[in-house]
Write a structure and sequence with these properties.
Number of strands: 7
Largest sheet: 7 strands, mixed
Low-confidence stretches: none
Shape: rod-shaped
CATH superfamily of the largest domain: CorA soluble domain-like
Number of helices: 8
Helix content: 55-70%
Order of helices and strands: EEHEHHEEEEHHHHH
CATH class of the largest domain: Alpha Beta
């Protein structure tokens, strides 16, 4: 009997959008005439490993691909069966969305096996739709619904990332640049991490829409093709968000450099005004004999007047050269 160790859900689709839940004994007693069987496993369960090796009737090469530690998204036909590996956004509490969840699928006309280790919100949606009677009615619709849900979550994440980058662009325009460089760098890292899996997943879904399997009819392939197009636009938006973040970082760097140069320029002007004056004051303040006019009371005011004339001449010269 199939143990609950590793078995998360077992349903028999009723062909009308609903399903009947099975236990381990029910799974062992299932026959193709009962309806499409959907088995959802945690592939880290020890009992599942035994079931996969001895009772699943799945080819060892496919089993190895299904339990790979870090598989890339892909869609491959094996006779009338389908091997599908997709990545979904990690919506679990405390997790980074970019730490994407791998969902592996082995599907045939009468049985669909899905594997995951961490909880997947897309699989939860599938279960909820079956419980509500609005779920998939056959294996092809189940596969199409799964990729549709997974792409929807990815689209929401990319849209949120685009909004975050737009907010950073607004902050650059308004001058509110506190900690903005670190925030932009983080957004770029998130975009790169998302693209690592979404780009090959786009190619996998595009290939899935063209795979000729008897139970994957034209309606299913049309839906998958639409999902693939949606994902393609999402990847393009992700690239645009990454490029916008890079441009915003460059603009922020330019503004910071411009502000620093402006401050240095002001300091240079101040130095140009006071360096000659400081030199004269230092020269007249030496503690040696021979300093002219040191006994005359009017000499101080005369010197101040000369300083004022000198500063005025400097201002006129700087403005004439358009340095001020």
């Amino acid at each position: 009997m199939l143990s609950k160790d590793g078995l998360i859900h077992a349903f028999v689709l009723d062909g009308k959008g609903g399903a009947r839940a099975l236990d381990g004994a029910g799974v062992e007693a299932w026959q193709p005439s009962d309806g499409v069987l959907w088995l959802n496993f945690d592939y880290a369960g020890t009992a599942f490993t035994d079931w996969l090796a001895n009772r699943s009737n799945i080819d060892p090469v496919v089993s190895s691909a299904l339990t790979d530690s870090d598989p890339r998204p892909r869609a491959v036909a094996h006779g009338d069966n389908l091997l599908l590996i997709v990545r979904g956004i990690n919506n679990n509490a405390g997790a980074a969305p970019e730490d994407m969840i791998s969902v592996r699928v082995w599907a045939g006309r009468d049985r669909v096996v899905t594997l995951r280790h961490r909880p997947s919100s897309s699989l939860r949606q599938l279960v909820s739709s079956l419980e509500a009677g609005t779920g998939p009615r056959d294996a092809g619709e189940l596969a199409a619904s799964l990729v549709d849900y997974m792409v929807d979550h990815a689209v929401l994440r990319v849209d949120r990332l685009g909004d975050d980058v737009a907010a950073c662009e607004d902050k650059v325009l308004t001058g509110d640049t506190a900690d903005l460089r670190a925030t932009l760098a983080e957004h770029r890292r998130h975009a790169i991490a998302l693209r690592r899996f979404l780009a090959p997943q786009r190619d996998a879904l595009a290939k899935l829409a063209t795979i000729n399997i008897p139970w994957l009819d034209a309606t299913h392939r049309a839906r998958i093709s639409e999902v693939a197009d949606h994902l393609m636009r999402t990847v393009e938006e992700l690239d645009a968000a990454r490029d916008r973040a890079a441009v915003t970082q460059e603009e922020l760097g330019s503004r910071v450099a411009e502000a620093a140069n402006q401050r240095l320029y002001i300091l240079s002007i101040i130095t140009a005004f006071f360096l000659p004056l400081g030199f004269v004051c230092s020269l007249l303040g030496v503690n040696v004999g021979g300093v002219p006019l040191q006994k005359d009371d009017w000499a101080f005011w005369a010197l101040c007047g000369l300083f004022a004339l000198y500063v005025g001449a400097q201002l006129w010269f700087f403005r004439r050269r358009r340095w001020l």
